[in-house]
Design goal:
Structural class of chain A: mainly beta
Order of helices and strands of chain B: HEHHHEEHHHHH
Shape of chain B: elongated
Strand content of chain A: over 45%
CATH topology of the largest domain in chain A: Immunoglobulin-like
Largest sheet of chain B: 3 strands, antiparallel
Helix content of chain A: under 10%
Radius of gyration of chain B: 22 Å
Number of helices of chain A: 1
CATH class of the largest domain in chain A: Mainly Beta
Number of domains of chain A: 2
CATH superfamily of the largest domain in chain A: Immunoglobulins
Oligomer: heterodimer
Mean pLDDT of chain B: 89
Mean pLDDT of chain A: 95
Helix content of chain B: 55-70%
Number of helices of chain B: 9
Distance between the termini of chain A: 24 Å
Low-confidence stretches of chain B: none
Distance between the termini of chain B: 55 Å
Strand content of chain B: 5-15%
CATH architecture of the largest domain in chain A: Sandwich
Strand order of the largest sheet of chain B: 1-2-3
Order of helices and strands of chain A: EEEEEEEEEEEEEEEHEE
Structural class of chain B: mainly alpha
Number of strands of chain A: 17
């Protein structure tokens, strides 16, 4: 990884200083990069923290030997930096590969007192996916308002690897198969941990008749760590 | 415009501790009142009401930066779109060798090969501008790049249309 730009702007009327950093990253591994997570830390000449923007996630794509670029930014009060010429930007970045599995198409429960369940527990790489329960939230006070449908899924990490992100995607399709709405929920999954995800969608009651819920899971696994730092220059913009 | 409509327009989602409950609250916020604010300010104002939002994001794009002003979402999305273009990939490629060392030159060559394999007829103008820029920057690297262009012609016919004479 190389920082190709690291700049600051003079403090604005509110006293805020804006920092901008650009980086290029080469994927040297066989795994395809699908996501990068990075942080930008700005420190002064004595390594005092000025600002830190962390857990920035981006859909990056790079096959082996391909390079991708990222733009990072942050801001802080100008008084935190006594000498900008000595301040620096530190970027820490990790790349991730993605795994995907469709978990099934499910009917919508007839009302908020019934459920549709998958009745099967599956294993997806290093993740145990417990059976899926589809339910309806309590109906709205006004029956003509949207009715909400939720999905309950517990997932367990059965490995010693820290899984950066487990994502459940749901897509609500009407009886003709046309897409009505999609939603997602995601969590990090430490080794041996179990997490609970509950994405939900909503539609008018009539639209839910004969509708189907398409449920899929994605997981993101670490490929490589990168680190770089650079002194800051005054922005020419 | 209400914040809910704005979120729908840009497909902005959020990850929170109890998304369903927060959603209604967010939907009703008057956008005009917070248009000049940053996403971080929005997060803080919701925190004051005990609505814990971990992050705002756009599916298939990523996290919305905390420092981004709510009014600047179009610029942010344009930049993301531009990042994927051949023009930007070529610009990034040249940045690899600016202030670079021997290893960076190898990196540049690997990168430029991958980019040149992808170019289509629509990208020819960007490639020609890039080559001109490269020629002015470093003639030796320019000549190496032309060799790569010639070598890759059989894999990507569009490269026959690149102007380097």
């Amino acid at each position: 990884m190389k920082l190709t730009k690291a700049t600051y702007r003079k403090p604005d009327d509110y006293g805020d200083t804006h920092f901008e950093v650009e980086a290029v990253v080469e994927n040297k591994k066989e795994d395809i990069v699908d996501m990068s997570v990075y942080s930008l830390t700005i420190v002064d000449g004595n390594n005092n923290t000025v600002t830190c923007d962390y857990e920035r996630e981006e859909s990056s794509y790079a096959e082996k030997d391909e390079t991708f670029a990222i733009n990072l930014s942050s801001y802080a009060k100008g008084y935190l930096v006594s000498d900008f010429a000595k301040a620096k930007a530190i970027v820490d970045l990790t790349t991730y590969r993605k795994e995907f599995k469709k978990l099934g198409d499910f009917d919508i429960p007839a009302d908020h007192k019934s459920t549709i369940q998958s009745n099967n527990q599956t294993e997806f790489g290093e993740i145990r996916v417990f059976g899926i329960s589809i339910f309806r939230h309590d109906p709205p006070e006004n029956a003509s308002d949207d009715h909400s449908v939720g999905v309950k899924i517990a997932v367990k990490n059965i490995s010693n690897e820290y899984i950066q992100k487990v994502l459940i995607k749901i897509q609500l399709n009407d009886r003709s198969g046309a897409s009505l709405m999609d939603s997602q929920d995601s969590r990090a999954l430490p080794p041996n941990a179990t997490m609970y995800l509950e994405p939900s969608v909503y539609a008018k009651s009539g639209k839910l008749k004969g509708a189907k819920l398409d449920v899929a899971i994605e997981s993101f696994h670490m490929i490589e760590h990168y680190n770089a730092e650079s002194l800051l220059n005054l922005s020419k913009d | 415009m209400k914040l809910g409509d704005y979120f729908k327009k840009y497909n902005i989602r959020f990850l929170g501790s109890s998304p369903k409950k927060i959603k209604t609250k967010i939907d009703g916020i008057d956008l005009e009142k917070i248009f000049e604010k940053r996403f971080y300010d929005l997060k803080l104002s919701l925190e004051k009401e005990d609505k814990d939002i971990i992050k705002f994001y756009i599916p298939e794009i990523g996290t919305i930066p905390n420092d981004l002003k709510i009014k600047a979402i179009d610029e942010f999305l344009e930049k993301k779109k531009y990042n994927q273009t051949i023009e930007n990939l070529l610009n990034s490629s040249i940045k690899i060798i600016e202030d670079g060392n021997y290893y960076d030159l190898d990196w540049y060559k690997r990168d430029i090969k991958k980019i040149l394999m992808k170019i289509s007829e629509n990208d020819l103008k960007s490639v020609n501008i890039f080559l001109l820029k490269l020629k002015n920057f470093n003639l030796e690297i320019y000549n190496d790049t032309i060799k790569i262009v010639k070598k890759l012609k059989e894999h990507n016919k569009i490269l026959s249309m690149v102007n380097y004479e």
